[in-house]
Specification:
Number of strands: 7
CATH class of one domain: Mainly Alpha
Radius of gyration: 23 Å
CATH topology of one domain: Lysozyme
Number of helices: 15
Bound molecules: calcium ion
Helix content: 40-55%
Shape: globular
Length: 326
């Protein structure tokens, strides 16, 4: 009897040592219950189990997208990633063809996104998603761009996802930003865009290749992918080009190719004058190079807002396609 008591006491003490009280956790759990019908006590207990991680704060403070294109490109456009993509496509040829057909997305882009995100599943992230989202919700660093509200919303979606997909929330791993599985879906995207392509009743973005491939295709489709249409063409820039035409943030195509050509950025490839485009400037070692970017480029930036990301996906997709068809 005495021994049991001692053991019970030890476990109470160790549990209380491990529990972390995060600022705002109580309000978060109350909101989870009030607005999303989640179990308040369960949410609170899970939050107490979440760990603040300085490494996550450090990582969000220096994203790869802050690099110039000439430093960013070699991270993603490598022989290993191109060959890996050709292999991945061949290994999953039937599923990729099925998803491509069903969702109207060119297959090489499904492959390239999974390649850029996780090197075809080889690097899916080793942070606990619970730690990542808790850290970024309650301890977002002062970077001049406070995204804690975004991560708090993702944390809420993460708890909802746990109930819906029967996911064990305390051991799921992902990126430092909380992106999960081979396609690196954030919890809200997982809930909104993931599909159960293998039909087993669950959307599993870690181990069902059908669900993974289908979900990436559906994501692009739902954001407006136009199959067979161009992503981007190099621009020929005149000396007196209107540099205000160069996009700074939002790559949604708003001006016609004719209008942009009038401003000094002509497409190096034939394209109809009415096509809507934006202009991307990417820094090479010898200065900026410019590109006309179309709707599909914009759709890729829905996956990750950086034009560097979209350009890396585009270049990788071209190299993989060339190798696959060889
Ligand atoms: Ca499934």
């Amino acid at each position: 009897m005495k021994r049991i008591l001692v053991l019970a006491l030890v476990s109470i003490i160790s549990a209380s040592c491990q529990a972390q009280q995060h600022p705002g956790a109580e309000e978060f759990a109350a909101k989870a219950a009030a607005e999303h019908e989640l179990d308040q006590e369960k949410v609170l207990l899970l939050l107490q189990e979440a760990r603040f991680k300085q490494s996550i704060v450090d990582a969000i403070s220096r994203p790869a997208e802050a690099k110039p294109w000439y430093d960013y490109r070699p991270i993603f456009i490598t022989d290993k990633r191109i060959k890996g993509g050709i292999e991945f496509w061949k290994e999953n040829e039937k599923l990729i063809a099925q998803a491509s057909e069903q969702f109207g997305v060119d297959p090489q882009f499904i492959v390239a996104i999974i390649g850029v995100e996780t090197l075809y599943g080889r690097i899916t992230g080793s942070y606990r998603v619970l730690d990542a989202l808790t850290t970024l919700s309650f301890y977002y660093p002062d970077t001049g761009n406070d995204r804690s509200a975004f991560f708090s919303s993702e944390l809420m979606n993460f708890f909802m996802l746990g109930d819906e997909e029967r996911i064990s929330l305390d051991d799921v791993t992902g990126s430092y930003a909380g992106a999960m599985g081979l396609g690196q879906f954030m919890p809200s995207s997982y809930r909104e865009y993931a599909v159960d392509l293998d039909g087993d009743g669950r959307r599993d973005l870690w181990s069902s290749m059908a669900d993974i491939i289908g979900s990436v295709a559906n994501y692009l489709h739902r954001h407006g992918w136009e199959p067979g249409q161009p992503v981007t063409y190099p621009a020929i820039v005149s000396d007196d080009a209107d540099m205000t035409l160069v996009t700074k943030r939002d790559y949604k195509p708003k001006k016609s190719v004719t209008e942009i050509a009038g401003g000094g950025f002509k497409s190096a490839e034939p394209v109809s004058g009415e096509t809507l485009a934006a202009v991307a400037g990417l820094e090479e070692e010898d200065g900026y190079h410019y590109w006309l970017t179309f709707k599909n480029f914009y759709v890729i930036t829905r996956y990750n807002r950086s034009p560097l990301y979209a350009m890396a996906v585009f270049e990788l997709s071209e190299a993989i396609l060339a190798g696959f068809e060889d």
